[in-house]
Amino acid sequence: MTDSLPRIVESPFQANIQYRGRLLYPERGPLVHAQRLALAFEPEPARLHLLASPGLWYGLPELLASLPADCAVLALEADPALAELSRLCLPEGLDANPRFAFVEGFDPSALVEAARRLGRFRRVRLVRLSGGAAFSPGAYEKAEALLNEDFSAFWKNRVSLMAMGRLWVRNIFRNLARLDEMAPEPLPRFRKPVLLCGAGPSLELVLPLLHRCRGQLDLVAVDTAVGPLVQAGYLPDLVVCLEAQIWNLRDFLPLNGVALPILADLSSHPASFKAAGGRTHLSLTAIEEGPFLRRLGALALPFLSLPPLGSVGVHAFEVALRLAEAPILLAGLDFAWPVGKSHARGAPALMAAEFRRIRLSGEADFAGSFRPEARKTPSGWFSDHVLSRYAALAAELAAARKALAPGQLFDLRGPGGLDLGLRRLSPEDALALVQSFPPLPASPLPPATPPQLEDLQSSNPSPHSVGRAFLESELRELVALESILRGSSPHPGSTALGGLIAERDYLLWTQPDAHRLGELPQDLLNRILVEVAYWSGLLGELLRD
Q1: CB-neighbour burial class of residue 169 (10 A; exposed 0-12, middle 13-18, buried 19+)
Q2: 240, 369, 499, 526 - which has most CB atoms within 10 Å?
Q3: In the chain, what's the furthest Cα-to-Cα distance?
Q4: Rounded Cα gap, residues 430 and 271, in angstroms
Q5: pLDDT tens profile 38-78
Q6: In 196-213, which positions are buried (b, 16+ CB within 10 angstroms) versus exposed (e)?
Q7: What does the DSSP assignment read for 396-407?
Q8: Can you give the C-alpha Rg of the chain in angstroms?
């Protein structure tokens, strides 16, 4: 008869664990066996060692002692009975070790949180020093994959911050400085069915539908879809923009002076607002969790706060989900392309390929279709890893909405795009759906007001004064910080100095070793001084204009 609960059994050598008819360590020399396994690992930098089923913690001291300073051990016990035993046997003082954590039960959020508390690592190394992992088959491999995915996302984000962080912050400051020109307004809610348009090839499929029921739809378009829609004779009710660089200005060339309402992120290129020319609405994307963006979000401005979703198409989908009170129909958000046609007709990328055509180059964008990372999809179209990831994010958003409000999301993209898990409609069914909704008057969406700003908003400050006050405060703090770093002002102490820098965490966005801030190494402080001087100079220019 097997044991239903684990128990410690004594042997002539060391204690062992007996559970469900088996010993978790070898009968002879269990401690020595675990120690040898622990010492067999070649030390590698920045590795999190995931200790599967720690049991009696044999081998853990040796493992910790052999690891480089930038490594740590995260012990995981997925079996509840074994977790209770391991907790009771935890060596005294081990839980106070900053390079160690113990998680009981397979809780993804708790696992990720514990790993982040231990530090930032490149990869996970799965370590088995006992046989307890056999009682939770697959759990530890799933935990390893989960943590590796979290680490990968973190470092990809770090790379993005290093490449784009300075541009994003520069755009934010410049946009705050010209809020008087923008005159941002709260976003209206969409009371009619929403046709959300990306610039994929399937956008062309809905043009006949627009011809028959344009007045019964709220038309929301990503910036790249403006050209195809305007050239077909349809002006969007809202254009969604997320681009920090100047390249997306070509999206607005077909407007030829026609003004369109725009929802652009505060980090978007300032020229995007002028290019659209219509009413301005602002979003604030949480590019990076930290004090800088939290302070921005607390301003008395009509922001629509959004998570970082990467793709303007997924970003626009989230906007539509936030504002729509009627069904949402998707078109052009394909995340894939057929051979020779990366976008709908009239989109800048496809037009650029057409301009490059000569008699011998064919009539399609074959270079874009057959780039090295392209992979064929079940529909016969092509996609790549980046677009597939964006499609997965869109599918997650769709699934969350479907769980709350079934029957609100519909797919008009035809058979070619990546599957988003939505009900597909024919043009006839889509027309019947749209016409079944009576027109409703628009209702404004009031901006979110942080409780701490009730007194400030009661005096009705203008957006311009709010933006200018933020920039002035930021400049004062940067000047004071620069004085400390140059030695012109008294040093406030390591903890206080680290706090002053961390409060303006955008100073660290371009630093690959930002995680070293707690140590305040001089080389990092020297580079932060360069950043402080750059931003204080820019803010001084913006406030003088």
Answers
A1: buried
A2: 240
A3: 89
A4: 36
A5: 999 888 999 999 999 999 999 999 999 999 999 999 999 99
A6: bbbbbbbbbbbbebbeeb
A7: HHHHHHHHHSTT
A8: 28
Q: Residue 343 — very low, low, confident or very high, per pLDDT cuts 50/70/90? A: confident
Joined together, the tokens standing for residue 196 give 């959300």
Average pLDDT, integer, range 531-539 = 96
Please tell me which residue, 308 or 354, carries the higher pLDDT value: 308
Of the pLDDT bands very low, low, confident and very high (cuts 50, 70, 90), residue 204 is very high
Whose CA is closest to 159, among 17, 310, 385?
310
| Secondary structure letter of residue 29 according to DSSP | -
- Judged by DSSP in three states, 501 sits in helix
How many Cα atoms sit within 13 Å of 490 on the Cβ side?
A: 2
Helix (H) or strand (E) holding 219: strand 218-222
Return the amino acid letter for 261. P
* pTM confidence score: 0.81
Q: Is 120 exposed, middle or buried (0-12, 13-18, 19+ CB in 10 A)?
A: middle
- C-alpha–C-alpha distance, residues 200 and 331, integer Å: 8
Domain range summary for the chain, segments of one domain joined by +: 7-154, 178-435, 462-544
Query: Residue 264: what are its φ and ψ, rounded to 5°?
Result: -120, 145
SS3 418: coil
Question: In terms of Cα–Cα distance, which of 206, 245, 244, 260 is closest to 228?
Answer: 206
Helix pair 494-503, 463-485: axis angle to 10 deg: 150
Distance CA 475, CA 469 (A): 10
Instruction: Take residue 96 and report the two structure tokens written for it.
Output: 């106070």
Over residues 14-44, the pLDDT tens digits come to 899 999 989 999 988 899 999 999 999 888 9
Beta strand pairing status for 277-285 and 303-306? parallel
Which among 377, 371, 384, 389 has a CA at the least distance from the CA of 416?
377
Distance CA 281, CA 190 (A): 14
What CATH number belongs to 7-154? Answer: 3.40.50.150
Distance CA 514, CA 508 (A): 6
Long-range contacts of 353-359 (CB under 8 A, 24+ apart): none
* Site of tokens 């046609």: 341
CB–CB of 477/499 below 8 Å? no
What is the identity of the amino acid at 522?
Answer: Q
231 in Cβ contact with 205 (< 8 Å): no
Dump strand ranges (E) for 286-380: 303-306, 328-331, 375-376
**pLDDT level of residue 368 (50, 70, 90 thresholds):** low
Q: Which of 109, 115, 103, 36 is nearest to 75 (CA)?
A: 103
How open is the CA angle 352-391-143, to the nearest 5 degrees? 135
**Residue 233 burial (C-beta neighbours within 10 Å; 0-12, 13-18, 19+):** exposed
